[in-house]
Specification:
The chain is mainly beta. Helices cover about 10% and strands about 60% of the residues. It is elongated, with a radius of gyration of 24 Å.
Length: about 260
């Protein structure tokens, strides 16, 4: 790192400090806890693992009574080919590459990873407004049939192929709610389910869904599937991550309406 002092001809001198660290994330988060900066959602950083490259830039006036809000800072964390096992509950993120940029207003990040061998690209922001955390994330994932079959074996008779999904997630800590919106093509996907008598076999079509999560750990999901072979509108109600009710509002196919 290095230190620069400037504005020597002015009433108040200023300083720039640059620090470069290549170490375990535990050392870096311990260092940041002692640093005179306030990072939005700092707890999230403590769930990361591995050995990132870290760069921190500080700029501040040389005052004896320096206040934290007078310090301008920018930080950068860069992870390469890491495995995260604490970031998402019960999920292992493998071969993760991510760049995180942090300043006093927000955290920005982007990268790629693998979840159960499914490739994922993501980007997002975290910021504090009115003392509450706001999250916005955009995700591209190749959702493979075997993942759905393993997660919901009781709902499908046969699954093949994949769905390229684009997912948008946003949450506001003040409301204690979140929303997930997803859309994708089902042209490369095959599905049979006797539960609601659907048979889709790689025909052209689209999947759209919207989930709203509430502060009592419940959620409501609306799923719309439109293809050459059928149309459906389904509502799913969950509590504590368990499905408690499925309502088929509309199901139109060659055999039924």
């Amino acid at each position: 790192g290095n230190v620069q002092i400037f504005d020597l001809d002015k009433p108040i001198e200023n300083a720039k400090v640059e620090v470069d660290i290549y170490s375990n994330i535990e050392f870096i988060t311990n260092y940041l806890e002692l640093a005179p900066i306030d990072i939005p959602n700092f707890d999230r950083l403590m769930k990361l693992s591995g050995k990132p490259k870290f760069n921190l830039n500080l700029e501040f006036p040389l005052l004896l009574s320096l206040k934290m809000e007078e310090i301008t800072y920018k930080a950068n964390l860069s992870f390469s080919d890491e495995t995260f096992d604490k970031l998402l509950d019960n999920y292992l993120l493998d071969k993760t590459n991510v760049i995180i940029d942090i300043d006093k207003n927000e955290v920005k990040y982007s990268g790629s990873t693998f979840l159960d061998a499914m490739p994922i690209k993501f980007s997002g922001t975290e910021e504090i407004k009115n003392k509450f955390l706001i999250n916005n994330i955009e995700i591209d994932i190749r959702l493979d049939a075997y993942y759905l079959n393993n997660k919901f074996p009781e709902y499908f008779d046969s699954l093949k192929g994949f769905i390229p999904l684009k997912i948008f997630y946003n949450s506001n800590e003040e409301d204690n709610e979140y929303e997930i919106i997803g859309q994708g093509s089902i042209n490369e996907f095959s599905m049979e389910t006797s539960l609601i008598d659907i048979n889709h076999n790689f025909q052209k079509g689209n999947l759209n869904f919207k989930m709203k999560g509430f502060n009592d750990y419940s959620s409501e999901t609306e799923v719309v599937i439109e293809s050459d072979s059928f149309e459906s509108f389904i509502k799913v109600f969950s509590k504590n991550k368990e499905i408690i009710e499925i309502i088929v509002d509309r199901l139109i196919s060659e055999d039924q309406n």
